[in-house]
Design goal:
Blueprint (H helix, E strand, L loop, with lengths): L14 E2 L2 H7 L9 E8 L5 H15 L5 E6 L2 E6 L5 H4 E3 L8 H14 L9 E9 L2 E9 L5 H11 L9 H4 L4 H18 L9 H11 L6 H4 L7 E5 L3 E2 H10 L4 H19 L9 E8 L13 E8 L6 H16 L3 H12 L4 H12 L4 E7 L6 E2 L2 E9 L8 E8 L2 E9 L7 H21 L10
Parallel strand pairs: 5-6, 10-12, 12-15
Antiparallel strand pairs: 1-4, 2-7, 2-14, 3-4, 6-7, 8-16, 9-16, 10-11, 13-14, 15-16
């Protein structure tokens, strides 16, 4: 039986836009569109008629915000219902060129979609069906970040699936730690205070400490990934890794699956810089990493409820094992602090101020990082839409300000997927990064397997 739960508010109702969602709505620039892009590959073909039914009978019904467009007047923002959805626009089709490697053709199609701007007079999302792809179909999509964050989109996917599999998502099984409970409580207090206009009283000493600590962080090394942006984007994804293989490497090295993938991403960035003849020793490369602040019982709600932390990526570290230990240490420190809540509070405040001031602040903070990196836990069981089972899924996280690289990690149906979207002025061909990621993991796996019989250590480059 399918879940009858509806995501969001009543169909057809005008919905006030939250201050945080307003901030995300206004984050678009010519160089960086604040849009989540993705692709799913099906095991069997899907017709456009089935796609239209999926969107019209499930998506806008189960998640009513998708039937609304963003509106503003005199500094006020809201979601307004659209009475007649244009399905020719929202359910578009793409035909891949004949010949060539299908995956490379799909990759280029995804890059083309990433570059497209959404029509601001319509709901800010669009799907593109590729009816013929490797004997089945593929579906490319783009959704503006103001509609939902990654956790909410996973819940939305489950709500429109033929059968609910949300119980199999790692996020649904995680017990909230005391830190998360505290940040949730602080988040709700902050919302109440902001609504009353008591902005400054909402900041505790810890928040102020984190705000000043981030503000006084040195900028990332310009020699690494801080070139001026071109607004041209390319995407790539790595071959799938088995979750159990990643977990096994993590256990052998005293870390978690998350530690392993973050360290492999850092190693991939190091490989890229070395291949370009750029310096790698002593460089500073940080990634902004989203931290979920949404209580588990609110996972079905749309909108954005997460903070950002600035994670130092150990790109300057040559030893792979040392990179994992460095990631562990940094994440432990960040999780024990209030940086995520602080950044969420800053967005709450910026959403009240003019767009120009918001962009100035975001540009300032974007100098402190070279990439956005997100890890979304998807369901461990395959999702089926209109009778077509999704065999693989990938998405690309948007960037803000002057950040030119997005690194995305998704666990789905027993696999770990890694994708990159990059401004071509920063990384001309992101496929080099995803290939480096796989090479880093395979080297770690080989070293772990060898060490189990008494020889070999994690490599250094």
């Amino acid at each position: 039986m399918r879940s009858k739960q509806t995501v969001g508010q009543e169909v057809g109702a005008v919905e006030p836009m939250s201050v945080v969602d307003t901030a995300w709505l206004r984050m678009d620039t010519l160089d960086n569109l604040m849009v989540i892009n993705g692709v799913v590959e099906f095991e069997t073909p899907m017709s456009r008629e089935s796609l239209v039914r999926l969107l019209s009978e499930r998506l806008v019904v189960k998640a009513p915000r998708f039937g609304k467009r963003a509106m503003s007047k005199n500094g006020h923002y809201w979601w307004e219902p659209v009475p007649n959805m244009d399905w020719d626009y929202h359910a578009a089709t793409i035909t891949l060129p004949e010949g060539g490697d299908p995956e490379q053709l799909l990759q280029q199609a995804c890059s083309n979609v990433v570059a497209e701007m959404l029509d601001p007079t319509r709901p800010l999302w669009r799907f593109y069906l590729i009816e013929s792809y490797r004997g089945a179909s593929a579906l490319v999509f783009k959704v503006h970040h103001s509609y939902a964050d990654g956790i909410a989109l996973i819940s939305t996917l489950d709500a429109i699936a033929d059968t609910s599999v949300l119980h199999s998502s790692p996020a649904a099984r995680v017990k909230r730690k005391s830190f998360e409970a505290k940040t949730s409580a602080l988040h709700h207090k902050l919302q109440v205070l902001l609504q009353k206009g008591l902005f400054y009283s909402a900041f505790s000493a810890a928040w102020l400490f984190e705000m000043f600590r981030v503000a006084f962080l040195p900028s990332d090394s310009k020699a690494a990934f801080k070139q001026s942006l071109s607004s041209q984007k390319q995407v790539a994804w790595a071959r799938s890794l088995k979750i159990e293989d990643v977990k096994q490497v993590g256990r052998a090295m005293g870390g978690t699956m998350n530690d392993v993938v973050l360290a492999c991403a850092a190693g991939s960035l190091r490989r890229y810089l070395a291949s370009q003849g750029r310096p790698v020793d002593g460089i500073v490369v940080r990634a902004t990493v989203p931290v979920n602040l949404r209580p588990l019982e609110e996972a079905m709600n749309l909108g954005n409820c997460f903070g950002l932390v600035y994670l130092p990526l150990p790109v300057a570290q040559a030893d792979a094992g040392a990179r994992i230990r460095a990631v562990q240490k940094s994440m432990k420190s960040l999780k024990s602090g209030a940086q995520a809540v602080m950044s969420y509070g800053v967005l709450n405040i910026l959403g009240h101020f003019p767009t120009a001031l918001q962009r100035f602040a975001l540009n300032f903070f974007s100098h402190k990082a070279s990439a956005v990196m997100t890890n979304v836990p998807g369901p461990s069981e395959a999702v089926t839409l209109m009778g077509s089972k999704i065999k693989r899924s990938m998405f690309w996280v948007p960037q803000s300000g002057g950040i030119g690289i997005g690194l995305s990690i998704l666990s789905y149906a027993g696999s770990v997927e890694f994708g990159v979207v990059a401004d071509t002025a920063v990384v001309e061909n992101p496929r080099v990064l995803v290939e480096g990621f796989v090479e880093e993991f395979e080297a770690l796996k080989k070293a772990v397997n060898a060490s189990s019989v008494g020889h070999a250590q994690p490599h250094a480059i």
